[in-house]
Automatic annotation (TrEMBL):
Gene source species: Acidimangrovimonas pyrenivorans
CDD domains: NPD_like (cd04730)
One GO MF term attached to the UniProt entry: oxidoreductase activity
Name of the protein described by the UniProt record: NAD(P)H-dependent flavin oxidoreductase
Taxonomic superkingdom: Bacteria
Top-rank EC class of the record's enzyme: oxidoreductase
Enzyme Commission identifier(s): 1.13.12.-
PANTHER family: BLR1330 PROTEIN (PTHR42747:SF4), NITRONATE MONOOXYGENASE-RELATED (PTHR42747)
SUPFAM superfamilies hit by this protein: Inosine monophosphate dehydrogenase (IMPDH)
Keywords carried by this UniProt record: Flavoprotein, FMN, Monooxygenase, Oxidoreductase
Assigned protein family: Belongs to the nitronate monooxygenase family. NMO class I subfamily.
């Protein structure tokens, strides 16, 4: 199927990648570093929390990100920063949603990422300020619903992704969505190398969506032990469980053992237990039980986020060169 051209906000990136929003972990420092390094940076609006009576933190974060990226662009017209994205959790327990939509529209957020619910009014809020809305989905049914409700693009969250992953192989999921959808399609799940990023494009995605690889960085708001655990762990150390949020997610086994639970014998929890209210016990689960995807074998040190982008770019270019060699060998018809 012929593809529609990508929206301007997703074109001209240094590598075809969007850094995914990470609950608790991503804030202005990480987003600014990702955007300056040339890929889309993002954060969940819910990470910006103020105490009662304090100035609105989301407003302060958007001001800082916008101003710092503007300054960077003026100083580096040949190497401008990539645009940033804000993630909205569209779930009935998110009592801040309406307020956060209004703030993001006022700050003209260029890319809106929605999770856990597709609602036309959220897409309309994005469009009202010239932004685009990308919705994350774990199967083809949800993908169709998201586009019917006005999303501009999709994030296919496949098996092996950190946080709330889907159960499907990326090969199956991307193929089913690409059979009818020619718009922006991102692939999420265990993409932590340039090879995986190129593979995402080869199977039909436009861009890769990268999460866990950015947790082990200097700018990430994560416990130093969490970062070290990522360096020391591999795919075998990831367990899938519903226990912590009510829906299936991928977590680091050693963090579960540290919290006094047996990662190989976890109880199941019901989706009704999901709760994004401020002060709820659930963020604690993310604070103590650490999420990560299966791609963490590629993380072997803790350093600046720009270093992760440099590494992935080098690997991506090398993989492209190998693909050119494959094309020379297998690409000619008889
Ligand atoms: C610790 C952690 C927190 C996450 N928090 C969010 C979130 O708040 N909102 C969201 O849409 N996705 C969230 N995700 C999922 C990511 O957006 C993304 O789908 C995933 O990290 C990609 O897989 P990878 O980690 O294997 O790269 C989270 C993932 C992790 C690992």
């Amino acid at each position: 199927m012929a593809r529609s051209p990508l929206p301007a906000a997703l074109r001209g990136l240094r590598i075809p990648a969007v850094a995914s929003p990470l609950f608790i972990v991503s804030g202005p420092d990480l987003v600014i570093a990702q955007c300056k390094a040339g890929i889309v940076g993002s954060f969940p609006a819910l990470n910006a929390r103020e105490k009662d009576g304090e100035p609105v933190m989301l407003e302060a974060w958007l001001k800082r990100i916008t101003e710092e990226l503007d300054r960077h662009n003026q100083a580096n017209p040949d190497r401008p920063a990539a645009p940033f994205a804000v993630n909205q959790i569209v779930h009935r327990s998110n009592a801040r949603l309406e307020r956060d939509l209004e703030i993001c529209a006022r700050w003209k957020v260029p890319i809106w990422i929605t999770s856990l619910g597709a609602r036309p009014e959220v897409n309309e809020a994005a469009h009202s300020c010239g932004g685009i809305a990308l919705h994350d989905v774990i199967n083809n049914t949800f993908a169709r619903k998201a586009i019917d409700k006005g999303a501009d693009g999709l994030i296919a969250v496949a098996a092996g992704a950190g946080g709330h992953a889907g159960p499907q192989s990326p090969f199956a999921l991307v193929r089913e969505i690409r059979a009818w959808f020619d718009g922006p399609l991102l692939l999420s799940g265990a993409i932590a190398t340039g090879e995986a990023l190129l593979a995402a494009q080869v199977i039909g995605a436009d861009l890769g969506y990268i999460g866990s690889a950015f947790i082990a960085t200097d700018e990430a708001n994560a416990d130093p032990d969490y970062k070290r655990m990522l360096v020391e762990s591999g795919a075998e150390d990831i367990v899938t469980s519903t226990l912590f949020t009510g829906i299936s997610g991928n977590y680091l086994k050693p963090s579960i053992a540290r919290a006094g639970l047996d990662p190989d014998n976890l109880a199941h929890a019901d989706p009704s237990s999901m709760n994004f209210r401020e002060g709820s016990a659930k963020p604690k689960a993310w604070k103590e039980i650490w999420g990560a995807g299966q791609g963490i074998g590629a993380i072997d040190s803790i350093g600046p986020a720009a270093g992760v982008v440099d590494r992935i770019e080098t690997e991506y270019r090398a993989a492209l060169a190998r693909t050119a060699a494959l094309a020379a060998e297998y690409g000619k018809g008889e």
